[in-house]
Amino acid sequence: MAKGEALLVNEEGKKILLKYNMNALINLEEAIGEPFAKFSQRFMAGDFSAKDIRAVFWSGLLEDNPDTTLQEAGKLMSEFELSEAIGGATKAFADAFGGGKADDPNPPEAPATKTMDGTGATF
C-alpha cells in the first residue's frame, strides 16, 4: 500500500481503495467549509459529526472515482463496517498528512468514538 492509501474489504469481498493526496485535502476543505488546520484540531479533539466523517471518506474516493458524490460516498460507507471505514480513512489520511507511514507498526490512533444522540450509532 502506498503512502496515504487504505484498502477496505467488506464481508462480501467488495474492495475500495481510498487515496489521500493534496487534491483530497482541498476537496475535504471545500466540503466541510473550513481550513484543514482548524478541522484537524477539531477532529482530533473528538469534535466531529457524521457529515465530517463522510467528507473524509469521500475525499479519499475521488482520486479513482472523480464523479462520486457525497451522498454516494455515504451509501458506500454503509456497505462496510463503520469502524473499518472510519479507521481506514483516518489512518490513511494521517499517513498522507500527519507524517505517519503506511507500514508503521504503531500508527496514530483514530479519534475517540462518540455516540450520536438518538441514533444508537457510534462513531
Q: For the largest sheet, list the strands in their spatial order.
A: 1-2
The pLDDT mean sits at: 84
Number of domains: 1
Q: What is the tally of beta strands?
A: 2
Task: Give a written overview of the molecule.
With 123 residues, the protein is mainly α. The protein has one domain (5-97). The chain is 46% helix and 8% strand. The chain is built from five helices and two strands, in the order ββααααα. Strands 1-2 form a two-stranded antiparallel ribbon.
Short characterization:
The protein is mainly α. The chain has helices spanning 22-32, 36-44, 50-61, 70-77, 82-97, and strands at residues 5-9, 15-19.
Any descriptors?
mainly alpha, globular, 123 residues
List the helices and strands and how they pair.
Elements: E1 5-9, E2 15-19, H1 22-32, H2 36-44, H3 50-61, H4 70-77, H5 82-97
Antiparallel strand pairs: 1-2
Helix pairs in contact: 1-3, 3-4, 3-5
